[in-house]
Amino acid sequence: MRLADIVIPGTPAARGALEVATAYCSPALLNHSVRAYLWAAAYGAMNGIAFDDELLYVASMMHDIGLVREFDSHTVPFEEAGGHVAWVFAAGAGWPVERRVRASEIVVRHMWDKVDPEQDPEGHLLELSTGLDISGRGVENFPAELRAEVLERHPRLGLGPEFTACFVDQAARKPDSLAGRFVRAGVAERIAANPLDH
Description:
Layout: H1 12-24, H2 27-46, H3 53-62, H4 78-92, H5 97-109, H6 121-135, H7 144-153, H8 159-173, H9 178-184, H10 187-192
Helix pairs in contact: 1-2, 1-3, 2-3, 2-6, 3-5, 3-6, 4-5, 5-6, 8-9
């Protein structure tokens, strides 16, 4: 598996989702979102997990949009806020209600400890890929050549400290959220030790 083997959907919705992420995310968070899709799609292809590439791509671009100032919610966890943004985006893209709900579910579930691939392959892949990109979980499941190519094309740009600060802020304002639980469980140390940064 090499970077050139990963299919990037070229649909209007996929292009629009990238445009939204580019407009609102910091450079580090944007590259993280792109890598989240690349890791997810690569893992799916390498492990025979069939998935909807457009749906996965849109969810990948939207999965952390709830962390940015313009979409940050003071009433719900960031992944739920992002799920709402994904639903609204999908409505604007003309997706049927069922597909809008799926986009929202995938965004919310990327924060779960585990997502059943039989019930939600896209949610499973995004949960795995974001775990890899943020803390290095499962890095051994990706070929070294692919890791090097992805990081060269989409560098990390100091994602670790930026993301840690986002989670610490979320935890302080929303202590009952999953971000709050992750901070109390030592996510900052795991992020700092991510082998993708070393």
